[in-house]
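Extended Data, panel c. Modelled sequence:
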Amino acid sequence: MSICGRAWRLRVVAGVVGLSGWLVACSGSAQSADTADTPEAALAALARATNDQDDDAIKKLVCAEKWREQYTFRSTLAELAGVDPRLADVEYRVQAGEVRDKTDTTATGVLERLPTKGMPDDLSAEADAALDSMAAPLPIGLVRAGDVIKLIVENGAWVAC
């Protein structure tokens, strides 16, 4: 075998190994940060994204039917700040719980609402009234009585709806 032949084969092998690594790195696993392949993974990712107030991640974890830009953390916190500037730093917190009533395409998850951090104790009556009338940011606005949230499969991934 000539040196040129050996070098060519090494380049081909290196290229295949590099391409394989690139494909694995770029494609990720079946459960990437953007999608969830189980309702449990979706619920956990939703809790993380909510606690991080990560609207971009939440958008990927909420069904298209329910997603509304006006219910993002960005817009909700801006609206709160208009009522009382101290509310701009409020942190909504949740904790992922169990998943039940699971079928191939639907499930019910428990997304426990935890006490909100940073809520001033001395809000005016006007600020309290405004808070009562405002919609909660997504996905908190999707949580129903008993801290349950509907999960469905949409476009091959589990999302809240």
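The two ends are 62 Å apart (CA to CA). This feature is highlighted in the accompanying rendering.
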